[in-house]
Amino acid sequence: MGVLRRCLRHEAVLFSSIGLLLRGRKDVPDDGVALPYAGPQRPMIVVFLVVSLVETGAFLLVDFGPVGDTLLLAAEIYTAAWLLGYLAALVTRPHVVSPHELRLRVGALFDLRVPLEDVESLTRRKETHASARGLIWGDEELVMGQSMETNVVAVLRRPVVATRPLGGTETVRVVKFFTEDPALAVQAFSAQRA
């Protein structure tokens, strides 16, 4: 899948997440346990969204001519919709533990599905990481942090192939990720393995 197609797919998933949010639904199977992770980012995104709306109002007070006003208004509306879609994707697409798989996501950007039988262990371990990037790739290790922090570690029985957001691939054997309730993650995993 080319980079352009991946970007278009990302936008489609982002904006469809607004519909899920408005209907109060989440992309979680009936037999799955949702593990939310959006909490730390939610206030910052809401602030950006409010600033974007205020900025839109400010631009409407200035006359840039019909073409300039139309372009600025279109850009501002798209920005506000994108931010709302980003927040909606984080909320409606949580991590999931189901009888079949461990699914780890970053909104519409990244989705890693690991068959549950390939997960050797899932443990609570709080770690702070030096980089603020959402995805950090290392030697067969993937860090999916929030605010430079992870609190659950999944060790896999064998390496799996993870697809990067723009299409490249990496081999992953250890995944460190953040969830708002790490105890629930471990409990759900243990219940599925029992």
TrEMBL record:
Keyword Membrane carried by entry: yes
Residues annotated as transmembrane: 45-65, 71-91
Keywords: Membrane, Transmembrane, Transmembrane helix
Name of the featured protein: Integral membrane protein
Species of origin: Amycolatopsis melonis
Lineage, broadest ranks: Bacteria, Bacillati, Actinomycetota, Actinomycetes, Pseudonocardiales
